[in-house]
Specification:
By secondary structure, the chain is mostly helical. It is built from 2 helices and no strands.
Length: 76
């Protein structure tokens, strides 16, 4: 019974974690953008990435790190 519950809850928790990290990454990107927006968006424009906001950059980075956080385990 416990294994079935674990099998059902694990994917749900991973999805919720990715959604939460995407949101908080977007908020963090917006806050960082208040001070460094021109610098970061200028670097991205030189790389060919245009028409994005700092919220979108932060949300992307939050999603990627949220997804990797669930799949990469560092042993001590």
């Amino acid at each position: 019974m416990m294994i079935v519950l674990f099998a059902i809850l694990t994917p749900i928790l991973i999805v919720v974690s990715c959604i939460a990290s995407t949101f908080f990454g977007g908020v963090a990107g917006w806050i960082v953008g208040l001070a460094f927006e021109d610098t970061i968006l200028g670097i991205l424009a030189q790389l060919g990435i245009t028409n994005v906001t700092m919220f979108q950059v932060g949300a992307f980075l939050g999603f990627v790190t949220g997804f990797l956080k669930e799949n990469i385990k560092i042993s001590k």
